[in-house]
Amino acid sequence: MFRKLLLPLLLALVAGCATPPGNMIPQPASSFPADALVTQRGVLTVRGRQFTLNGYLATSATGGQRLIVTENFGNVLADVLVKRDGTVFVIRSGRAFKREWVRRFVAADLQCIFGESPRMDCPGRQLSETHFVIERRRYKLDLQIVETRPGPQPAELFDESRKLTP
Questions:
Q1: I need a surface site. Which of 9, 73, 105, 110 has the fewest CB within 10 A?
Q2: d(Cα 78, Cα 67) in Å, to the nearest integer?
Q3: What would the mean pLDDT of 111-134 be, rounded to a whole number?
Q4: Binning pLDDT at 50, 70 and 90, where does residue 161 land?
Q5: Residue 11, CA distances (Å) to 4, 19, 37, 142 in order
Q6: Cα-flanking dihedrals φ and ψ of residue 21, to 5°?
Q7: What pLDDT, on a 0 to 100 scale, did the predictor assign at position 26?
Q8: What is the mean pLDDT of the chain?
Q9: Confidence band (pLDDT; 50, 70, 90) for 116?
Q10: Distance between CA atoms of residues 88 and 80, nearest Å
Q11: What is the CATH code of the structural domain delimited by 20-155?
């Protein structure tokens, strides 16, 4: 009896599971056009404190992704460019977000939601086509897409050597 159960059990362990874990954001997020301007609203929870954020994401099929995160009064907290090859450029970081934090977490969260290839380190859920929750060890990001305007974006947005004027 034990031998009859052992082979199917070993096959199941070796083959693994065909469905992704329930706490991973599915990829790719095909509901977003390759060229677009996406406006987002988010709530960042860190150590029990909540902060509201606005995000403006320009996507380009050839240039990559440029995300600008602002607070409610318009001050820039993070400006990051992720090229198509995955190279991350922190164009600007505000007082609240350290440069390394922007590189490590903001860019990673951007790729979790809008990246083209599956990532294994995307701890979160997609609640609808426009609502995402990312839950990392030290913070939680509740992000909602407010508007998506398809169309090509200016090429200078994807040039890492150019900063936008405030």
A1: 73
A2: 8
A3: 86
A4: confident
A5: 12, 16, 46, 39
A6: -60, 150
A7: 60
A8: 83
A9: confident
A10: 7
A11: 2.30.29
Quick one: pLDDT at residue 14?
37
3-state secondary structure the chain: CHHHHHHHHHHHHHHCCCCCCCCECCCCCCCCCCCEEEEEEEEEEECCEEEEEEEEEEEECCCEEEEEEECCCCCEEEEEEECCCCCEEEEEECCCCCHHHHHHHHHHHHHHHHCCCCCCCCEEEEEECCEEEEECCCEEEEEEEEEEEECCCCHHHHCCCCCCCC
User: Does residue 125 contact residue 20 with C-beta atoms inside 8 Å?
Assistant: no
pLDDT at 120: 73
Residue 122 to residue 136: CA distance in whole angstroms: 9
Q: Is the dihedral of CA 12, 22, 104, 140 positive or negative?
A: negative
Name the pTM for this structure. Answer: 0.80
pLDDT of 95 reads: 87
Boundaries of every domain in the chain: 20-155
